[in-house]
């Protein structure tokens, strides 16, 4: 089994992001392999700042390893209107269940906030991932040049009550 597809080998903690995480989250977004080539311009100047972290429910998946808590991924939940705004997993950590773990955490947070559904405008390469974790395709977010010059699939997570 390659390291890219091996299960999580060290304990993972999901915690609320704090201002000092901003630079690491920005690097994760800008360095994402999913945004190479024609998609690179979409994240080239993107910034996850302390103000963003404070304004939204942003959570990070952190590995308990020799590096003292390496950020493996994160997501951001916007409550009004309900939307999964960002979800990124570090390239080297993909295929190990971290994205699925973040989605499960996001659904729990959404349920606790009283949401019964939320929207996701997906990046094209992430479309299969969202299908696999239970999101339902609801439409298309049309291109908005110059920021996003391509159409994107739109999904919805339905949040069942417990």
From TrEMBL:
Pfam families: Acetyltransf_10. One of its GO terms (molecular function) is acyltransferase activity, transferring groups other than amino-acyl groups. It comes from the Bacteria. Residues 12-162 form the N-acetyltransferase domain. PROSITE patterns: GNAT. InterPro entries: Acetyltransferase_Butenolide (IPR053144), Acyl_CoA_acyltransferase (IPR016181), GNAT_dom (IPR000182). Keywords: Transferase. This is Acetyltransferase (GNAT) domain-containing protein. It comes from Streptomyces wuyuanensis.
